[in-house]
Amino acid sequence: xxxxxxxxxxxxxxxxxxxxxxxxxxxxxxxxxxxxxxxxxxxxxxxxxxxxxxxxxxxxxxxxxxxxxxxxxxxxxxxxxxxxxxxxxxxxxxxxxxxxxxxxxxxxxxxxxxxxxxxxxxxxxxxxxxxxxxxxxxxxxxxxxxxxxxxxxxxxxxxxxxxxxxxxxxxxxxxxxxxxxxxxxxxxxxxxxxxxxxxxxxxxxxxxxxxxxxxxxxxxxxxxxxxxxxxxxxxxxxxxxxxxxxxxxxxxxxxxxxxxxxxxxxxxxxxxxxxxxxxxxxxxxxxxxxxxxxxxxxxxxxxxxxxxxxxxxxxxxxxxxxxxxxxxxxxxxxxxxxxxxxxxxxxxxxxxxxxxxxxxxxxxxxxxxxxxxxxxxxxxxxxxxxxxxxxxxxxxxxxxxxxxxxxxxxxxxxxxxxxxxxxxxxxxxxxxxxxxxxx
Length: 439
Hints:
Layout: E1 12-16, H1 22-31, E2 35-39, H2 43-50, E3 59-60, E4 63-64, H3 65-75, E5 78-81, H4 84-90, E6 93-96, E7 102-103, E8 106-107, H5 110-120, E9 128-131, H6 139-148, E10 160-163, H7 173-179, E11 182-186, H8 189-199, E12 207-209, H9 213-244, H10 248-255, H11 275-289, H12 294-317, E13 326-330, H13 345-355, E14 359-363, H14 378-382, E15 387-390, H15 402-408, E16 416-419, H16 426-431, E17 435-438
Parallel strand pairs: 1-2, 1-6, 2-5, 6-9, 9-10, 11-12, 13-14, 13-15, 15-16, 16-17
Antiparallel strand pairs: 3-4, 7-8, 10-11
């Protein structure tokens, strides 16, 4: 096998999909000297990117993504476009980062299908197609490959086809593209080697070469599901600790002093695009094979039920009836210090609060998504509120501004603070005259 490395200055790569994965990946290649064309169907997004605008909260070392984007646009190494034909004509390396939405446990393969057809429309001999989307195991070979071959060129013969799972955490994308051990697979050895060479431009950690595409597709899904199961376990522990009258966060801290124990932290639910969807990437193939996945399905149900538990915490502590109450929600992101609210548990919590008749005012300065319940300041959120509910940690929110809270919150009974993120000290909150509860 060749260990030859590519000269980045001669690499022209097109990234299809410029979201939370695609944009930092595109800029990672551009920063290292590649010529990068980012392709997306969203003309508004493309226009913003070409004007140096992004709401992502990523950094490379201490340099924010906004500065990186500005530098790479100025250098000419990166540009965004909706014109896939131009990208296909000018590049020989194509990376797919589009996702598979799951709605009501049903998959929407249309984005992957559309992207595959787009690439097929201009696929040339010698090109590499590298899939970095999370897929149902077997999908690269059985779904993507046939579409690409509609171009008239054959995978593994005329063009290279490979798969490498994306393993980044939002907020750490640049670092983890560079330093996270990464899995690489290909339709054949030549495809795998071609992908290894391309990925070696950005990835300095070990590249683990897998025997098959299906092995890496499955490993990616299992990585995400393992976190779902672990979170479900600590959410069950949290219910037990509440019943027995002890602090779950202290218990976890104590348990984690064992060298072989690493419990995660409970919260208001499991959010983001990856973990809540992970089981649903595995179940189609499992159902086809007759594998029940009982534990994994139970874990998913436990985590889906957590927002309802959070709402029950709110309603039992309110000093007034739900129909007369206002709750200030602090933090909308799917995880701490993120601008992403896709599948955020906060959104489910708010939906259930509103269904119970409670008025909600939510504040999160990092999340750009518009919502009817969202307000523009901490003052607007807590004004006349009967309770404060913390659902995510975020810079720019004065979580401990007790003086402001007391001056603006409703005087109908004792005001309440409910903490799902282990942000407060109970004694301190109660000293300031609040009822306190935590998950």
